Amino acid sequence: MHMIVLLLIIGIVIASIVWLVSARMQRAHAPRLPARRSHGLEVLEGRYARGEINRDEYLQKRHDTLG
Prior knowledge:
The chain is mainly alpha-helical. It is built from 3 helices and no strands. It starts with a helix and ends with a helix.
């Protein structure tokens, strides 16, 4: 009886390790979605692209926005 319980515990431990390794492998190979950009940064880039602000203003405001 004790041997069956011991084998069951060992089996659960091995199955858990296999499941964890498998989950990490799938996560490592999953395609990453691009990070969502803030609306403020999109507006800033639009203003720079339209020539409403110069490069120095753009870089300073971008730095302020990103932190």
